C-alpha cells in the first residue's frame, strides 16, 4: 500500500488532531503518501482532498477539534453517495482509508470496505460508547472538563445550600456521568444503564436532608433525560432549592489531556500498521493497556458495558 487517506467524521473530540498527526507521520515514516480528506464523508464525496506532508500536522498535537473538520452526511448513507466517494478515492489513487470517529462513522467505513476499499476505524468520541476498547479518544479530556466545571458548581452549591443537577454528555452511555460522579464525590449519579434508580436518588436526598445536609450534586447523563425536567422532578419530590446546569458543548472542546494524546498517537499509528499488514474492516482499540483490533461491524453488535462495580462504589462512598 503506497497511498492512504485519513478523515475525521461525526461528533468531534479532543485528541482527534493527535490521531491525525500519528496517521500522517507514521505513514510517511513507512514511505507512504497520505491524503487528508476534509469534512468527513461529505468532503470525500466532493473530492475535498489534499496531500499531507510532515509539516501539515505540525503544532496540532495539543489542539482540540480537528484540522480536517468533521461533518455529518446523509447522502453518504446512500449507495449513490458511496459510489461518489469511491470515484474520488479512485481519482486520487487512494488505496486505504483511516476513519477517525464514532460508531456511525464506522458503519460508513464498513460500507466502503465491502465495496473493495480497505478501511480502518479509530474510535474518537467523548462518549466512550464504543465496544471493544476500554477508552475512546476524547473521553479523558471531556471527563476533566466536567470535573473542572463541577468543582466550581460545588463552591456555589455550598455557599447557597442548593441542590444542583448537572447534565453531562455521553449519548446513550453513562461513562462520563459515572466517572465524573466518582471523581467529584457527587451525591448521586443517574445513568441510562440504571434507569430505575430515580427513587433511590430521591430517598438518598431526603435522608441527607433529614440529617442536616445542605447541598447536593446530582450528575445526570444526557441519555437518561432532560436536565430541566429532572431538576423539576427532584424539586417536586424533595422541596429542595434545586438548580440545573447543562454543560453542553464545552465538553467537546479544549486541549486534549496527556492520556488522550498518548492514546490517539498509539491508535492512529496502529491503524496505519493494520493497513500495511493488509487488514481491512477493522477497528483499533485499547484493552487492558494493550492495542487490539476487532471486526469493525461485529464489534458494534456487542453491548456497550459500564463498570457496575464503579457505580456501586460511587453509591457506597456517597451514603
Ligand atoms: P459518529 O461517527 O460520531 O457516531 P454519526 O452517527 O453522525 O457520528 O455518523 C457520521 C457519519 O457516518 C454520518 O453522517 C454518515 O455520513 C456516516 N454513516 C453513519 N451511519 C452510516 C451507515 N449506516 N452507512 C453509511 N454511512 C453511515
List the helices and strands and how they pair.
Blueprint: E1 3-8, H1 16-29, E2 33-37, H2 40-46, E3 49-52, H3 79-92, E4 96-101, H4 103-114, E5 119-123, H5 139-160, E6 163-168, H6 175-184, E7 188-190, H7 198-210, E8 216-221, H8 227-238, E9 242-246, H9 258-276, E10 282-287, E11 290-295, H10 308-317
Parallel strand pairs: 1-2, 1-4, 4-5, 5-10, 6-8, 6-9, 7-8
Antiparallel strand pairs: 2-3, 10-11
Helix pairs in contact: 1-9, 2-3, 5-6, 6-10
Bound molecules: adenosine-5'-diphosphate.
Adenosine-5'-diphosphate (ADP) is lined by residues 9-11, 41, 72-73, 76-77, 101-105, 107-108, 111, 125.
Q: What would you note in describing this structure?
A:
It is a single chain. This protein is α/β, with parallel strands linked by helices and 319 residues long. It has two domains: 3-138 and 256-299, Rossmann fold, CATH 3.40.50; 141-252, Rossmann fold, CATH 3.40.50. The chain has ten helices and eleven strands. It has a seven-stranded mixed β-sheet, sandwiched between helices. The protein is elongated. The model has no long low-confidence stretch (mean pLDDT 96). Bound molecules: adenosine-5'-diphosphate (ADP). Adenosine-5'-diphosphate (ADP) binds next to α4. Adenosine-5'-diphosphate is lined by residues 9-11, 41, 72-73, 76-77, 101-105, 107-108, 111, 125.
